[in-house]
């Protein structure tokens, strides 16, 4: 069990000012636009448009990225740091497509909160719901941004009801929109009693804030047309009667989400949301670990790898391990213990993912994300400490739902293929199984699109054309149990047995019946659909 937030000691100021979060949304809701405005107001970029432009420059580098662009999906996750007021924000990007849900799940282990972006005309969409469920599994606090209020959108009460019913979470309005579509003028900031007006002339300009004292303040009439003002007063009164008031504790426990209404493209509502993240999203939280949890205020540095990205720069065969610092104050050049191998590792060239570019990190604190270039020593789920044997838990690997055999287009290149497959497996992009009988490999993924990405990447990053072929198997289960029992079981079922990329035994299944049969015939053996990353 983690400590309840109220029992936790005060954090050192450098740590307490950090907010590490991800954005979850359905494609097209406005995640990229919102990210760009965050960076703009965080001073990380000078002009809106740069994130997209940079993204495109990067994407043209390979076919795989081209594919990402064509499909309008973001396959690779990255991290961005920027300052806002007294806060240091760390935004970790999540792939939006459901075929990459395992990646998303692991990314969400590295954040303390999520921003849910919904389109005001569309409400809660399928992908929003799926990602929300993942956040719920981790009890992550969620702040909501209802975007595109400059367009015809749904009735505000209807949107709020839909979130409450669909996602079973209390919703409290942090702001209330005034008008919508062409008549949208801005919002009433319910938390700070301010009127926020949208500037339609300049999309990158922040709206004016006008301090008022309640909705009867005569100042309102100077800015809001009479009809809309009447409507605003009525709606806010109703909202205060019908909807719960903001309860920070309930937000931190993930039972309540405050909602802001805005228009990312017009920079409207973004600053209020950023203030909200500062005020209502949690400080860096303790990390679950064995044999004890790791608290951010601990003096000693500890961190864990939640993502590995290979070949970020195709010219250098390096990999970057994305590490969430769980505790302490990290300084460049520090010697850390890689707990799995018990080896010391000098972290001499860590990178911070500042929006402008990869930059060398001189220091970082609990809550930050740093990138550690390495040659394959660091794997997803690995823990780094200053010597203590601690293992961060809760970073699972899921059984694949689709399996295919893979072959090199050129049979002479089979060894190269093996290397590429293992590399992608370590990155978490796929599972690789070596059947105990025969040659060749079986690749397992969660979503079909992953096969395409994998094929394109093996070709572009290793120069190896590959073919995927249907496999008789549909899923895999990790085999556990007493050593003897597992060995007997494996010997009698060789045609179903394989080893995964960590060398663990798996049972390849064709249908549920296979699993039922094993459970019936081998009571000492258990088959599991998830495995903790080592
Ligand atoms: P993502 O797929 O969630 O990253 O969405 P994008 O940020 O790429 O936005 C999808 C589309 O919606 C783009 O054409 C944006 O220009 C547009 N868009 C984003 N925010 C707004 C908004 O506040 N109002 C309107 N009208 N369009 C928006």
Automatic annotation (TrEMBL):
Subcellular location: Cytoplasm
GO biological process entries: regulation of translational termination
GO cellular component terms, semicolon-separated: cytosol
Tr-type G domain span: 16-285
Keyword Phosphoprotein in record: no
PROSITE patterns to which the protein is assigned, alphabetical: G_TR_1, G_TR_2
Role according to the record: Increases the formation of ribosomal termination complexes and stimulates activities of RF-1 and RF-2. It binds guanine nucleotides and has strong preference for UGA stop codons. It may interact directly with the ribosome. The stimulation of RF-1 and RF-2 is significantly reduced by GTP and GDP, but not by GMP.
A Pfam family it matches: RF3_C
Positions contributing to GTP binding: 25-32, 93-97, 147-150
Keywords (A to Z) from UniProt: Cytoplasm, GTP-binding, Nucleotide-binding, Protein biosynthesis
Molecular functions (GO terms): GTP binding; GTPase activity; guanosine tetraphosphate binding; translation release factor activity, codon nonspecific; translation release factor activity, codon specific
Family: Belongs to the TRAFAC class translation factor GTPase superfamily. Classic translation factor GTPase family. PrfC subfamily.
PANTHER family listed in its UniProt record: PEPTIDE CHAIN RELEASE FACTOR RF3
Signal sequence residues: none
Name recorded for this polypeptide: Peptide chain release factor 3
InterPro entries: EF-G-like_DII, EFG_III/V, G_TR_CS, P-loop_NTPase, PrfC, RF3_C, RF3_dom_3_sf, RF3_GTP-bd
